[in-house]
Amino acid sequence: MSRRTRSESTTQGIPEATIARLPLYLRALYALADRDIASVSSEELAAAAGVNSAKLRKDLSHLGSYGTRGVGYDVDYLIYQVSRELGLTQDWPVVIVGAGNLGRALANYGGFASRGFHVAAMLDSDPLVVGTVIAGHRVRSVDEIEPVVVEHGVMIGAITAPAAAAQTICDRLVAADVTSILNFAPVVLNVPDGVDVRKVDLSIELQILAFHAQRRSVVRAPRHVGSSDDVDAGADHSRDRDRNGTHDLGDNHDHDDSDGNDIRYMSAITRKSGRATSGSGLPASAGRGVPVNGDDPVAAEAVGT
Q: Taking all residues of the chain, what is their mean pLDDT, rounded to a whole number?
C-alpha cells in the first residue's frame, strides 16, 4: 500500500472547509440510498447535510459534479465521487492505542467497515489488559507499535490513551510512518509537517452546548419589571424605610419637609407647566395612577419610589 503525506484532494486545490463537509454529504447520500432514492436536488441534499444549497453546489463543483438541471444529482454516482475523493474506495486499517472504555467502544463500532475502515489491532500498556480479547482482537502491548504498523500497513492511528501518554504514543506512531492520527486525548499533539491530526474532545463539545443552553434559558426566562419578585422587593424596601425613617434613593437631592423627614427628589424629574415630568417628557404619574402635584413633595416622593 502506498503512503501519502498529503491527500490527493489537497494537491488538487480543494479547500479544507470543503473537505470537512464532504463526509456530511456522504452521510446524507447514504441515508437517501437506503431509502431507494435515485436522484436528489441540491436543495434537498443541502437540507439533509445542514448547509445551504449554494455552498453545496460550489463544494461539489470541486469534484466535477454539477448535477442535471431539473433532475438533480444521481445519488449512487455522487456517493462514488465523494467516496473516491475522500479515499474511501480502498480499505484503511486503523490501530487503536488505548483499550479503555473509549477504545473498546471504538473497536465495537460497526460503522467503520461500511465506510472503508477496519480495526487492524488494539494496543495497551496495562499488563492486565494485554492478552485479553476485545471485539475479536487480542490486545497487544504498546511496545509493539512499530511491528504492528508494518504488519498491517497501518496509516491511521487512533489515540484513546490518557493525556499524559498521548504525545509519546503519537511520536512512536509518527516514527513508524503513520501519517494520520485521530486524537481523543484532551491534549494538543505536536507533529511534523506531513502528518494530519484530527482532535475529538467530547468535553469541549459539551461545554459549547452548555453555553448555548445557558443563553437559551436566559432568553426564555427574562426578569420583567412589575413581576411578583419586584413587588415583594418593593414592599420589603418600604417597610425598611418606614422603620428607619429615611428614604434610600442614592444620589438624589435632599429636601426637608415640615415633619423633618428626609424627602429626596429624583434628579431626572423636571417641572414643566406646574406638572412633574420624567426625563422622557411624559408625566411621571403615567401608568402609575398617582395624581401629580408639582408643589406636593409627598406626590413627588411617590413618583420617585
A: 78
* Cβ proximity of 254 and 260 under 8 Å: no
Which residue among 44, 70, 86 closes a domain? 86
Provide the whole-model pTM: 0.62
Distance in angstroms (rounded) separating the CA atoms of residues 247 and 242 = 8
156 and 132 in a common domain: yes
What is the band of 209 on the pLDDT scale with cuts at 50, 70, 90? very high
Report the C-alpha gap between 51 and 35 in whole angstroms.
21
**22 found inside a domain:** yes
Distances in whole angstroms, Cα of residue 66 to Cα of each of 22, 139, 174, 281, 300: 15, 47, 39, 63, 74
Find the domain containing 264 and state its range.
229-304
Q: Is the pLDDT of residue 184 over 80?
A: yes
Spatial distance between the Cα atoms of 5 and 194, rounded to a whole number of angstroms? 5
